[in-house]
Each structure stands twice: as structure tokens, then as C-alpha cells.
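Lecture 7 notes: from sequence to structure.

We start with a single chain of 498 residues. Read the sequence below before looking at the structure.
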Amino acid sequence: MIPFSKHRLMAMAIAAVIGFTNAQAQDTTPDAVKTRSGEFKFERGFPTEETTKKAFDEMDYQRAVQAYLWAYPVVSFESIRRAMKAGGMDRNEITIADNFADPKSLWLTANDTTIYGAVNIDLAKDGPVVVEIPPGPIVGLIDDFWQKSMSDVGLPGPDGDKGGKFLLLPPGYKGEVPQSGYHVLKAMGNNFNAMVRGLVVNGDKAAAVKIIRSVKVYPYSARANPKPNKFVSMSGSTINTLPPQGLEFWARLSAFINNNPVLERDRFFMAMIKPLGIEKGKPFQPDARQKAILEEAARTGDAMGRVMLYEGHHRFKGANAIAGTHWNWVQVMDPSQEAQYYSQVDERLHYTYGAIYTSPGIGVKKAGPGSQYIQQFSDKAGNHFDGGKSYKLHVTSNVPAAAFWSVTLYDTATRSMIQNPGNDSARSSLDKLKSNADGSVDLYFGPKAPAAADLKSNWIETVPGKGFYPMMRFYSPKAGLFDGTWKLPDVELTGDRK
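Now the structure, written as C-alpha cells:
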């Protein structure tokens, strides 16, 4: 017998290791991989031609879906800009709802209880821009196109009811900066939208209109003699500001990207959309393959956005507003859109798919000037709202709103005010409502008015075959909304369509 040498023992050990390694490699790099996207095939470890195409298409599709969710707030604001421009309002020109917003128009969760004013600003074209807010009962904000708030203005802002001037400086601005007289806001982008609301006090709508018409927006370079702003009424008009479907969604994203700096946080997303024909400094000209992927991704992304709006509150801590009910806060994200270790992409989508404009005054849950919103998507029994059925909301007395409160019904398909035969989708404490002996109010939602004639003023007509949901607003909210001392019950089903 030939004795084993050290060299032979080592050779056998190496062979065993190689055999074990090869077996491991075979396990981790199989020739066929079954996935939800189909089967990926490999020959001697190399992908087949079919697999290569499938893998890259799937990679680009998955990235496009996530880019759609990331870009939603930008495309929403770009859609508002384009709708306003089509209606005759260029930058620094103001649309005004001088007879309230019309439910026939499509604006994400607009309401018809305040006098709106909105204006688009482009620092790339005008350089620094001044937004001048008059004194009085006005609330508002200045947002960039990511719908990140630069500042509240008016009552919830730094000047309260005294009025004030806000100066927006472009990214990297090196010019003159005034040392006083302005709240200086250093921008990270070029596109902004400022929105203000004149509050109707003691039924004086004319005064609310006058205060909005006193807002001024002009380039800082024209501060010595700014030209009067153009105002265009949006009341009674039909305007569609909703983000579009299909390739137009991406075209609007590309336009925004080409007019704004790329933020450091968004560089990975820019890498994701580059293979799809969306690139900084280049026109949007996708080829047939890219078009097919982008169109499918937009359909999927829109469906995911709907799910995030209507069911996303289950994913977030602190979403519930009234303990033991289905009432949830409309805005669950931090005003900065940032958490300790991540940016709040899901929270931002949850809000911006259903609404527009963010504000510290909405995001911070505390009493004071400004406004706060809650909404619910299912009734007391947990069923989604049906426009063919009848419901009741018992608004308990002493509503914690120093100015006033309102309840508006929104169409689930458009997230805009429901379009009913009466063209009236809201009720508020400013209306002449029938109250109960204890000061509470019962509101009714359904296709038919309540049998009692004196309750018709408390009724909002719904449309059979359509879904809806209620949102309640509190203007100048009080502590009871946040500390649990005021309770609002769920909306209850009272009957089916006859």
C-alpha cells in the first residue's frame, strides 16, 4: 500500500472544495429562473437573447412605475400650470374663484366655501420674485413643484393678519439680498405655485374677494414700479387640472426636469428614467419600446396611487384622527417630507394623489390660525361610500374651529368635488343649517333629499353609480381637535336607493 503524501492529501482536499463550490454555484446560478415576470433562461451561465430583452424591459418597467409614484406631485403642479396657461393665465397672473370654485372643474380636493387665488411663478424666467400678501383674514402658502412648502402666508404665516412680503430667490442666487422688509426664501427649484384663500367673515364674500385681488406677485427687479397683476376668474368655468394619463404624464415630467435643477436626493431616480428617454437637457422623444413601457407603467402607477390614497392610512402610524372611527388625517407626512432615515415617498403620494398644496399649518397638529383636514373612505360599518345609498353625519356641537368648518364630498374617480344636479358639493357652518337643540348638526348624503322639508338645507346630493368620500375642514382649529376632547362619529348608512 502506498502511503498518502501531504501533497496528495492537499490535492484531495482541494478537489473536494472545488466539487462543493461547483455544486453551490449550480444551486445559485441555475439555467432557468422562474419569476412573476416569466422564466429567464441561461446557457452555460449566459442569458439567452430572449432573456436579455425580457430582463431589460422588466427592469425599465419596474423603474418607470416607481418613477411615476415619485414624480406625481411634480406632474400634478405642472398640470395646474398648463391648465391655467390654457385659461389665459401666464406666470405671475392670478386665477381667482371670485364666486367660489365650480364643482364642474377638476381640481384635486378644491372646495366651494372659500375664495381661492392661485399663481404660478418661474424663477428661471424672472429671477427673484416677490409675493406680497395684504393684511386681513387670508390664509395661504408658497409651494415648489415637489409640493414642498416654502412658507405659510397670511394668518398661519410669520405676519399673521398684518400682511407681508416674501422674496423667492432662485437656486444658487448670488445677487442682492435685502436685509429687511422681506421674508427671504432660498429656493431649490425654479417652478412654484402660491395659493391663497380669502375667508368669508360674517357672510361678507365681497370683502374676501377684495383681499385676494389685493395680492401682488412681481419680479424683484420691478419692485419700484410693479405692473398690476392680471386676475382671471375661475368661477363658473370648466378646468381640468388633473395629471394626465399615458405618455403625456411623462412629457410633463420631462418639461419640469428641463426647467429645474436636479436635487441630490433624486439622482437615483434620474438614472432610472434615463433609459426610458427622459434625460436632463434633452427633449422627450421616446422610441416605440420606451413608449410601450411608459404607457403601461403609467397605468400601473395610477392604480397604485389610487390604492395608496384610499388604503394607505393602514401603512402609516398616526394616521387616525378620531379614536375609534374611520376619520383620518388628510396629511400624514411631515411638512418637510422627510423622516429621520428616509424621504417620505409613500406619505407624499398618499397626500398628493388626492390633494394639492402642502403646508406646515396642515402638517403640524396644533391649535391656531390656518386649517386642518380629516377624511374617511368608509362608513361606520366599514363599507365604502356608494352614491346610490343614503347616509347621515352627526356633527357634534362645539366644533373646534374658531373661524368656521365645512364638509365637502369628493368623487373617488377624480378626487374633485362631486358633480351633482345641484352643482353643490359642500355644507359649512357659514350656511343656514338646521341645528339640533344641543347645537349639533345632522348632515345628509344621498341621491334623495330627507323627507323633512326643513332638512333639505343639510343635504348634499350624491350620484348613483359613483363612489364618494367626505372631507371635513377646520379653519383656525382649536385644541379639541387634537387632544381627543371633541368627538366626531362616523358617517352612518341610513338607507339604500329605492
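The mean pLDDT is 93. Keep this in mind for problem set 3.
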